[in-house]
Design a protein that fits this description.
InterPro entries: Isoprenoid_synthase_dom_sf, Terpene_cyclase-like_1_C, Terpene_synthase-like, Terpene_synthase_metal-bd. The protein has 246 residues and is mainly alpha-helical. The protein contains twelve helices and no strands.
Length: 246
């Protein structure tokens, strides 16, 4: 055994762990400042889970900025998802979607308090990144519209066909939002061809989103089908069961 190499490996491990810890402290302070956990108690608090998930995606020490950015992104997606899934009326969700589409901070007075907090956190995050070329407002609008479509299905008791469900689910799984943010946080300079490629939603993204959507549905199906006190979005399993009965 090469003792010098072993010592270097231990030193590198400790340095990387210390780097991760500082990043976790950073996002924890951000999370506390948003007041989302306090003001939106119905939403899932997945900060640490999201951070560890991003370590698995971008583990190299030099990608600290991207890990921090991606963690905030994943947390906000979770919060917005829960706003649409488990809280509020359909009218409130429609209004929230409309204001996201307008992207007008002055319009939030029309929203209930918990949605105002959510919108401000999202608005600050997007403005902080200032990715004009990314057209992030449009990306978030598409995501919220997909969430709203699922909410409408729930409130009206409509079970879509598998084709209808998957067309919307490819957006609601938020793969395009995560990919776009992640790509631009590690890419410099940003090339026009790359933006055009993302706008076309290539097959590699589409199929990855499909796998992620179905895996997520499978993992949460038991909870959603047995949570009688909550109105959960339609699952692909429900759509498939309906088409099979027909």
């Amino acid at each position: 055994m090469n003792l010098i190499l072993l010592e270097l490996a231990k030193l590198d491990f400790n340095i990387v762990q210390a780097t991760y810890l500082e990043e976790l402290k950073h996002v924890s302070r951000w999370w506390k400042r948003t007041c989302l956990a306090e003001k939106l108690p119905f939403a899932r608090d997945r900060l640490v889970e999201c951070f560890f998930w991003n370590i698995g995606v971008l583990f190299e020490p030099q990608y600290g900025f991207s890990r921090i950015h991606a963690t905030k992104l994943n947390v906000l997606i979770t919060i917005v998802d829960d706003v649409y899934d488990v809280h509020g009326t359909l009218e409130e969700r429609e209004l929230f979607t409309f204001i996201i589409e307008r992207w007008d901070v002055n319009a939030i007075k029309q929203l209930p308090d918990y949605m105002q907090i959510c919108y401000l956190a999202l608005n600050n995050f997007v403005n902080e990144m200032a990715y004009d070329v990314l057209k992030e407002k449009g990306i978030w609008t598409d995501l919220c519209k997909a969430y709203l479509e699922e909410a409408k299905w729930c409130f009206t008791g409509y079970t879509p066909t598998m084709e209808e469900y998957m067309k919307n689910a490819l957006i609601s799984i938020s793969a395009h939002v995560i990919l776009s943010h992640s790509f631009f946080s590690v890419t410099n300079p940003i090339e026009k061809e790359a933006i055009q490629c993302l706008e076309k939603y290539p097959d590699v993204v589409r199929w990855s989103a499909t796998i992620l959507r179905l895996a997520d549905d499978l993992a949460t199906s038991w909870i959603r089908m047995h949570a009688a006190s909550l109105i959960w979005p339609t699952l692909s399993i429900s759509c498939l069961m309906k088409s099979t009965r027909q």
